[in-house]
Every structure is written in structure tokens, then in C-alpha cells.
Design goal:
Length: 514
């Protein structure tokens, strides 16, 4: 067996080397023009290991969900802040409008005694009214202005260069009409207008909101305005504060996300290290079990060869030497010695066949699982004297090779355990196919065992081997202690059942299933 394993290993290594040589690209010469034209540098793409896939699977949903939450929070924060800022701006502007109305009402009350009794062509009354309005200034930048409906300025106390000049068509630096719009509003009775205008206190342009009414008898537009640059600064400061708050929120979310990712990474690293240690421990145990199984099998084969074949061959040798001496001396017993030698050689041949059948029965490959189990049970009954019964039912499909080998080895291991430990007198083995797959059921009337003792003090190696074989097939193994005896239920799933042959022959029983 050692020489066979070494030959198999050499064959596997030779096959792998051949595959590597077959797939190795043929190098081109550096002087080849084709090589110079098609020369490329291959950049290896990092392979995603199981640990990396697990880390990505844990972190990507977290990062995407946190990013979505951050975007939603930012959007909601900006929307709410814009709504609050708009409400604040509207409140401030509403207060400014009310303030302008109060100023203009005060101015109108001041000129009522002059304006009300005066006819449209009373120039003296108009002069007195302009003087009254020109004197009514307030604050650093507050004043009243008057334009005739044709655009001529009559009152501008903060900028006297405007007086007596026609400003029809005047626009600010942004192209917004000023005088024409004020006159239009005055003709309609009054209204508000916003535009850019030089601020008297600084000389720089600032946003101004004006309120104007019309003196229809005199064809005048009288109004006043306030600069709302302080309002715009307040709104800009509020928006900046909102952006700063959103930025801080993003920073907090990013910090929490990084902490969570780091925690996931550290947790994954810890779990990976722990699982690797457990896997290494299991691998060591599995390796040791493989070595133990190999040594046990080698020891069994060695005992079989030494106690069986070796003894028989020694007996054959002595019988042949005796026959040779008898032939030389002319002893009439020589033919009997030769017959005994031939009989012993037949026994040796039978022993070799039995050992070969135990290692890998040829009937399993040639005739299928059913005949192999039948041969196994008959040999077991003959050798041990334990009454053994095999039952099969009609089975339309066929088992694949892995399932056949696994179920046969489970039956072999079960019979070995029954022979060594159960003390049973009867064994029943049933093999049947069904909609979910195929099941092998083995029952005995022995003394049974306690499942809790499996695995203690090195016990239960055969049961673990059976369980691992079924696990590789995605099947199930159920061991149930009974009174008396034990039942073993091994079931392989439907995927290990091959489709029935299309030869038109009647369905074969499971006993002949391959």
C-alpha cells in the first residue's frame, strides 16, 4: 500500500507539472518585431479571499446605508433651515415694510395742511411741501424723495445732485429700472420696489427697499426707503451657520461610520483569528485521524497478510517440499501432498480476494450497490454467525458513484461495529429509494450504546467517519439507540440520484442501482 500511495503521489505531481507546462505562455524573443509591438505589462488583480468578501459584505451595506442616511439628514436639514431662513427673512422684511408705511404716513400727515387745500397749479404750496419733505430725514441714511410723473426729481436731501433733473429710464448696476417703476407704482396708488442704490453713509451700492405713494392731484410720486443689507447679511450668516452645521453633522456621521467600520474590521479580524485557530485545531485533529485511520488500515492489512496468506503460503511451501522429497524417494503419498498444496493455494487465492474485496469490492463497480451489500451481508453472516437480512425495493433511478461508495462504507463500518461491540444475534439492512433520495437503514438487536459516550476516550471514530461521509454528500445520518439494539439511518439527497436509463427496459430494483 505504501508503494501504491507513493506512485499515486508521483502521478499527481507529474500531472500538475504537465498542466503547468501546458498553460505556460510561450516567451517571445526581445528582438522580435511582434514582441515589440504587442508587449504589455499584466497587472495582477488582487484576489478576493473569503475574509475580504466577508469584510466587504459587512462594511459595504453599512457604508451605503450611512451615506444614504447622511444625504437624507443633510437634505432635510437644508430644507428645514431654508424654510426657517425664508420665514425669518419674510418677518424682517415685513417689519421693514411696516416701518416704511409708518414713515410715509408720518410724511403725509406733515404735508396734509399744505397739500389738501392747494389746487394743482399752486406752486407756492408745492415749494413748501418740498421744503417740509427735504427737512424730514431720519437716521444716517433715511430720507424722503419726490419725483414728478415725468421723471423729474424734486426732493433728494441726501443727494442734492439729483434735484431738478429728469431721471426717467434710470436703472441700477444690475439693470433693474428705478424711477420708471416707482412712478408706475405711484400711479397705481402705491407699492414696494427693491433695487441697488448708493448708501449715503458709505457711498457704496446696497440693496434698498422703497415704498412709494402717489399725490394724484400734483402728479407726484412721494416715497422713502430703507437699506436691507443688514437683512441680507443676517440671512447669509444664517445660511453659513446651516452649512457649518451640516458640515459638522457630516463629520459626526463620518466619524461614527469610521468607528463602526473599524469595529467591524477588528471584530472580523478577531473572529478570523479565532476561526483560523479553531480550523487549525480541527485540521490537526483531522490529520491525526487520517494518520490513525491509515495506520489502522495498514495494521489490519498487515495482520491479514501475516495471519492469513503468510501462514497459508508457508504451509504450501512445506507441503511442496514434502511432495518433492516424496517424488524423489518414489513415495506413493506424493500425489496426496501435491493435492494438499493445490488446496492450500486455493485458500490463499480466496484470502487475497477477500482482502481485496474488503479494500474495494469490484462488485460495487461492476454490479452496483445492491449486489455489493448482498455479498457483504452474506460474507458477514458466514464469518460471524450473526443472522443478517437484506431488503430492497423497486428503485427507478440510479445512485452516483459518491453515494454508492459512501453507503457501502457506512454499511461496512456498521457491520464491523456490530461484530466488535454490539453482541447482536440479528441484523436487518434495508435499502430504498424515495422522493427525497435514497435511504440505508441498518438495525441490530445488540446491547446498544449511549450517544453521550461517542468521542470520549477515542471512541466513536467509525461513527464520525460515517457522519463525515454523509456530510460531504449533504445527506443526513441518524443513529438511534433502541431497546434492544441500535438503528442507523443514512439518507442521501435527491441530487445524487441519476436519471433512469432511456433504453426502454423496465425499471431496475435498487439492488442493481449503480
Amino acid at each position: 500500500m505504501t508503494a501504491s500511495c507513493e506512485i499515486s503521489q508521483l502521478s499527481f505531481n507529474l500531472t500538475r507539472k504537465t498542466a503547468q507546462l501546458t498553460h505556460r505562455p510561450v516567451p517571445l524573443s526581445c528582438d522580435s518585431p511582434h514582441h515589440q509591438r504587442t508587449r504589455k505589462i499584466a497587472v495582477p488583480f488582487p484576489e478576493l479571499t473569503y475574509a475580504r468578501k466577508l469584510f466587504l459584505l459587512a462594511t459595504l451595506p453599512l457604508i451605503l446605508s450611512v451615506a444614504a442616511i447622511a444625504l437624507v439628514v443633510a437634505h432635510q436639514s437644508r430644507t428645514m433651515a431654508e424654510r426657517e431662513i425664508a420665514e425669518l427673512e419674510e418677518q424682517i422684511l415685513s417689519a421693514k415694510r411696516q416701518e416704511l408705511q409708518n414713515y410715509l404716513q408720518l410724511a403725509r400727515n406733515s404735508i396734509t395742511t399744505e397739500y389738501s387745500p392747494a389746487p394743482p397749479d399752486d406752486e407756492e404750496a408745492k415749494l413748501r411741501v418740498t421744503q417740509i419733505l427735504a427737512a424730514m430725514t431720519y437716521g444716517q441714511d433715511g430720507y424722503f424723495f419726490v419725483y414728478t410723473y415725468d421723471g423729474t426729481n424734486l426732493v433728494a436731501p441726501r443727494d442734492t445732485r439729483l434735484i431738478t433733473r429728469n431721471w426717467a429710464g434710470l436703472t441700477d448696476s444690475a439693470g433693474t429700472p428705478i424711477v420708471d417703476e416707482l412712478i408706475r407704482l405711484a400711479r397705481q396708488g402705491g407699492g414696494y420696489h427693491s433695487y441697488l442704490w448708493p448708501k449715503p453713509s458709505t457711498g457704496e451700492e446696497a440693496q434698498m427697499m422703497s415704498y412709494v405713494i402717489g399725490l394724484q392731484d400734483w402728479q407726484w410720486a412721494i416715497g422713502t426707503g430703507v437699506f436691507i443689507d443688514d437683512v441680507l447679511r443676517s440671512v447669509a450668516a444664517a445660511r453659513a451657520e446651516v452649512e457649518d452645521r451640516v458640515t459638522r453633522t457630516f463629520g459626526y456621521i463620518g466619524t461614527i461610520t469610521m468607528a463602526a467600520v473599524l469595529l467591524v474590521f477588528l471584530s472580523g479580524l478577531t473572529i478570523t483569528i479565532r476561526e483560523r485557530r479553531l480550523a487549525d485545531g480541527k485540521l490537526k485533529k483531522l490529520t491525526q485521524r487520517i494518520f490513525d485511520t491509515q495506520e489502522e488500515e495498514r495494521g489490519r492489512v498487515a495482520r491479514e497478510l501475516h495471519d492469513g496468506i503468510s501462514q497459508i503460503l508457508v504451509g504450501v511451501r512445506y507441503a511442496l517440499e514434502l511432495a518433492r522429497r516424496q517424488l524423489k524417494s518414489g513415495d506413493p503419498k506424493a500425489p496426496a501432498s501435491l493435492d494438499r498444496s493445490v488446496e492450500m493455494l486455493g485458500g490463499a487465492i480466496g484470502e487475497v480476494r477477500r482482502i481485496s474485496r474488503d479494500l474495494r469490492p469490484g462488485i460495487l463497480d461492476d454490479l452496483g450497490l445492491g449486489p455489493a451489500l448482498k455479498s457483504l451481508t452474506e460474507e458477514f453472516e458466514t464469518r460471524t454467525g450473526i443472522r443478517t437480512e437484506l431488503e430492497t425495493v423497486v428503485f427507478r433511478n440510479r445512485l452516483d458513484e459518491e453515494a454508492r461508495i459512501a453507503l457501502f462504507r457506512i454499511a461496512q463500518e456498521a457491520l464491523t461495529n456490530i461484530e466488535r461491540h454490539a453482541g447482536a444475534t440479528e441484523v436487518t439492512m434495508k435499502l430504498a429509494g424515495h422522493r427525497k433520495g435514497a435511504t440505508l437503514l441498518i438495525c441490530d438487536n445488540g446491547r446498544g450504546f449511549d450517544p453521550a459516550d461517542v468521542g470520549k476516550r477515542g471512541r466513536g471514530l467509525g461513527l464520525r467517519n460515517m457522519a463525515e461521509r454523509m456530510e460531504q454528500l449533504d445527506g443526513s445520518l441518524t443513529i438511534t439507540p433502541r431497546h434492544p439494539g441500535t438503528s442507523i439511518d443514512a439518507t442521501v439527497p435527491l441530487k445524487h440520484i441519476l436519471p433512469p436509463a432511456t433504453s426502454g427496459r423496465p425499471p431496475a430494483p435498487i439492488g442493481s442501482a449503480r
